[in-house]
Amino acid sequence: MPPTPWTPPTGGLDDPVWGQAFWYRGSAVPGAPSTALIAGHVGSRGGPGVFARLGELVPGDPIIVEDLRSGQGTRFVVAETAEYSLAEAAQPDVLARIYGAGPVAGTWPQPSADGLAHLTLVTCAGTFQGQTHDHRRVVSAVETG
């Protein structure tokens, strides 16, 4: 069965989930030759969220994703950063860049065309309007080995 549409964890602004990053289970496991997606909140009423400083990353910066079960880390390097309006972020080509092959088509993650492990980090950006911010910040990275 393919993954269902993704909805990040929600809760009151005092809920601890606002301080955690979360892996989209419909994406690849970090380090697999596909695309893994990890998201986190930019902030909350209580202060900065786990991805509050995501906008400071630039191409070439290192990222390590640690598997808490094994204690092993997978190393990535930032390839590009982007910010998309909500309308842009809903476009199929942008969704494919964020999620990788598979989830956008309603299937499980597919191998990346280049055979490498990719990582996408995403959070809110721009101006808070009603229930969410009006942009999404996206950091794309590639495994370094």
Polypeptide structure, described:
It is a single chain. The chain is 8% helix and 38% strand. The protein has 145 residues and is mainly β. It has a single domain, classed as Sortase, Chain: A. Strands 1-2-7-8-6-5 form a six-stranded mixed sheet. A hairpin with a 2-residue loop joins strand 3 and strand 4 (47-48). The protein is globular and about 40 Å long. Residues 1-6 have low confidence and may be disordered.
Characteristics:
mainly beta, 145 residues, 8% helix, 8 strands, globular, Sortase, Chain: A, 6-stranded mixed β-sheet, disordered N terminus
What composes the largest sheet? 6 strands, mixed
Oligomer: single chain
| Integer count of domains | 1
Question: Given the structure, what is the number of helices?
Answer: 2
CATH class: Mainly Beta
Q: Report the order of strands and helices.
A: EEEEEEHHEE
Query: How much of the polypeptide forms β-strand, as a percent range?
Result: 35-45%
Gyration radius, rounded: 15 Å
Principal-axis shape equals globular
Unreliable sequence segments: 1-6
Secondary-structure class: mainly beta
CATH superfamily: Sortase
Q: What is the name of the CATH architecture?
A: Beta Barrel
Q: Strand order of the main beta sheet, please? A: 1-2-7-8-6-5
Provide the helix percentage.
under 10%
Number of strands: 8
| Overall mean confidence score, pLDDT | 85
